[in-house]
Amino acid sequence: MSNAIILIARILLSFMFVLSGFMKLTDPAGTAGMIAGAGLPAATLLAYVAGLFELLAGLAVLTGFQVRIAGWLLAGFCVFTGIAFHLPYASGTELVNILNQIMVMKNITLAGAYILLATVGAGAYSIDARRGAYAAA
Predict the structure, then answer these.
(1) What's the predicted TM-score (pTM) here?
(2) How many folded domains does the chain comprise?
(3) 33 lies in which domain range?
């Protein structure tokens, strides 16, 4: 039963990054604008890099491939993007400030979920288990 729950969790945790990564790769302008607004250089290039990372890491979680590594990387990514792009919530209208506060809380919460996934592993229904990289529960 716990392996089925881990699979469901992996599917749910992968959804956002697979979709977001695909969207960044097909239309990077909005992400590039946020990156430039945060004062980082090479905004368009970084938008493509972020999109590729999100897509590949999301697919790794979905398929259960190198989940421990992907989990730690996604946890770090969530914390970094929450702080770099959403923490300064006193920078826009009241609605934008509220949305940024929610995004920071969401990112920190997701970081916890990815740390848990990195600790628990991919479960029996995964590429990692087929490769022998995970001891099935």
Answers:
(1) 0.90
(2) 1
(3) 3-129
Helix (H), strand (E), coil (C) string for the chain: CHHHHHHHHHHHHHHHHHHHHHHHHHCCHHHHHHHHHCCCCCHHHHHHHHHHHHHHHHHHHHHCCCHHHHHHHHHHHHHHHHHHHHCCCCCCCHHHHHHHHHHHHHHHHHHHHHHHHHHHCCCCCCHHHHCCCCCCC
Q: Is residue 135 situated within a structural domain? A: no
Per-residue pLDDT of the chain (137 residues; tens, 9 = 90+): 799 999 999 999 999 999 999 999 999 999 999 899 888 999 999 999 999 999 999 999 999 999 999 999 999 999 999 998 888 666 678 888 888 889 999 999 999 999 999 999 999 999 999 998 665 44
Sign of CA dihedral 46, 25, 15, 54: negative
> Which amino acid is located at 112 in the chain?
G
